């Protein structure tokens, strides 16, 4: 975990078990305290713009794990006002743990579509990303793969790569599939994909694309924004260029999409400033900055995509409410375990 600042919280910081911990709430006027799962380079430009427009200082703790546990441990003494994180599963964990509060804002509700926010205002989507299929340019004919169902087709036996099935990115897709197709059909799909795997699931989304470049497999599930990240990395550009990014259909409903999002903490000591920040993040300028920084799609419909993302073309996003997806996460994890997906082919 790293503690990023242009400005430190006005409290003592102690180091416990190698991680930063804030000693108490920041009560000063003109501040808002943020716990962020997202990396500094993704959010700092829009936070700087927020401060320039409002005069409200932003204090940020960046953490890639244990965010819910930290908020629960701090309880009413937590200094955090706003949480920024990724994936509906993680947003729903905040709700389940009761560490976030409902927010009612006509501004936010006008900016963020209903399908990408909690009906009770306990979380709001900020950007979206699609769960795409990357296909080897020189080994997968155009039009050969058009749906997630195709990954279970025996013709691709030994040619599919995947990160672990219980990763939140895959759990989101499996949850949406359960919502649309039911448990039995989704289980059969998981068994089919497992039978087609080239190797035991592991690694990250990027490592699946690397495996395509190296000829270890021909198809992989990958979030769309990784294409932008790999193209910007000289060491990974060739991986990205070896594959075509496809927007697969889910049983006639379109491509599965997920979100990055925000929530106000239950104990927020600077609630007025927290609301100011959340309303700002839902607006046009922040939507553009945030989505462009990570090659994502703005959640606000009338905000233009970055030139790179626009070059990917249009697709039909599954309109299912993400609350419905979140409600199926437990069933999705159960199926992954039942078919021993993470043990790989032949197990």
Automatic annotation (TrEMBL):
Q: What cellular component terms from Gene Ontology apply here?
A: outer membrane-bounded periplasmic space
Which keywords are on file for this protein? Answer: Iron, Metal-binding, Signal
The molecular function GO annotations come to: metal ion binding
| Residues noted as binding Fe cation in the record, renumbered to the chain | 225-226
Task: Name the Pfam families on file.
Answer: SBP_bac_8
User: Would the keyword Metal-binding be found if you checked this record's keyword annotation?
Assistant: yes
Read off the PANTHER family from this record: IRON-UTILIZATION PERIPLASMIC PROTEIN, THIAMINE-BINDING PERIPLASMIC PROTEIN-RELATED
Concerning its family, UniProt says: Belongs to the bacterial solute-binding protein 1 family.
- Which protein is depicted? Extracellular solute-binding protein, family 1
What organism is this sequence from?
A: Rhodospirillum rubrum (strain ATCC 11170 / ATH 1.1.1 / DSM 467 / LMG 4362 / NCIMB 8255 / S1)
